[in-house]
Amino acid sequence: MRKQQKIQEEIDLTLKSTENLKRVSQNPFLFEKTMNRLQEQNSYEENFKQIFSLKYVFIILILIILNIITLFKFRTEDATSYNKEKSIESFEEEYSISSQNYYY
Fold first, then answer.
1. Please, how many CA atoms are within 13 Å of residue 94, restricted to the half-sphere of its CB?
2. Residue 97 neighbours by CB under 8 Å, 6+ apart
3. How far apart are CA 103 and CA 65, in angstroms?
4. In sequence order, what are the residues at sequence separation of 6 or more whose Cβ sits closer than 8 angstroms to the Cβ of residue 33?
5. Per-residue pLDDT at 64
6. Does the pLDDT of residue 28 top 90, yes or no?
7. Rounded to an integer, what distance in angstroms lies between the CA atom of residue 43 and that of residue 50?
8. What pLDDT sits at residue 78?
9. Please, are residues 66 and 60 in contact by the beta-carbon 8 Å criterion?
10. Mean pLDDT for the chain?
11. CA pair distance 71, 31, nearest whole angstrom
């Protein structure tokens, strides 16, 4: 019985202590600060996406231009000076390779 009474006294003390509590005052600009931070984060993300998308576009354009340049270069070489058979023959002559020499 005494233990039960002690517990009840503790409960009453705890409840009375909550009566003296005051309401916490909040910062009046808290909402504005959080909204500004969210907008800043969104703007950074958008800028980041735009920068990377532009970089990829430029990289792809550069690669396409390089491919076109090499394509035209090889086409002109094929048409004017490059002859596959002549180069093979000159290679054979240079290194003394012929299809009739077999060394086993």
1. 6
2. 91
3. 49
4. 27
5. 96
6. no
7. 10
8. 59
9. no
10. 78
11. 60
pLDDT winner (highest mean) among 32-36, 50-54, 61-65, 99-103: 61-65
For residue 64, give both structure tokens.
Answer: 């396409």
Amino acid at 92: E
pLDDT at residue 12 is higher than 70: yes
Placement of tokens 């980041």 in the chain: 48
Residue 55: how many CB atoms within 10 A of its CB?
10
CA dihedral 23, 25, 31, 36 (to 10 degrees): -150
Model pTM score: 0.35
User: Angle at the Cα of 22 (from 26 to 13), degrees rounded to 5?
Assistant: 145
Please give the DSSP secondary-structure letter assigned to residue 95: T
Question: How many Cα neighbours within 13 Å face the side chain of 67?
Answer: 6
